[in-house]
Amino acid sequence: MIIDVPSLIAFLSAETTLLPGPVILTGTPPRIRPPDTPAERLAAGVEVVVEIDGIGRPVNPVTAEA
């Protein structure tokens, strides 16, 4: 990462009060899947699940734009 997480939080909180709930997206880490596995694409009907210990497991469905 170009900017480490503590610096990113400091930058964002300088102008905005960060309350519990918002998610700060930092990008995709390298090698999140084995190199020989084809990439999955987001498409209508796919569910994106992010699980974080102690926080929860939000499930977000992907829908097609009208």
Helices and strands in order, then pairings?
Layout lengths: L4 H11 L31 E3 L9 E3 L5
Antiparallel strand pairs: 1-2
Task: Explain what the structure shows.
The protein has 66 residues and is of the alpha+beta class. The chain has a domain at 1-29. Helix content is 17%, strand content 9%. It is built from one helix and two strands. Strands 1-2 form a two-stranded antiparallel sheet. The protein is extended. It starts with a helix and ends in a 5-residue tail after the last strand. The model has no long low-confidence stretch (mean pLDDT 83).
**What is the average of the pLDDT values?**
83
Q: Tell me the helix content.
A: 10-25%
Give me the secondary-structure category: alpha+beta
Task: Choose one word for the global shape.
Answer: extended
Can you summarize the main beta sheet?
2 strands, antiparallel
Task: List the secondary-structure elements in sequence, H or E.
Answer: HEE
Biggest sheet: strand arrangement: 1-2
Summed up, the helix count is 1
Strand content: 5-15%
Poorly predicted ranges (pLDDT <50, ≥5 residues)? none
Oligomer state equals single chain
Distance between the termini: 35 Å
- Rounded to an integer, what's the Rg over CA atoms? 16 Å
User: What is the number of E strands?
Assistant: 2
For this entry, give a set of tags.
single chain; 66 residues; alpha+beta; two-stranded antiparallel ribbon; 1 helix; 2 strands; 9% strand
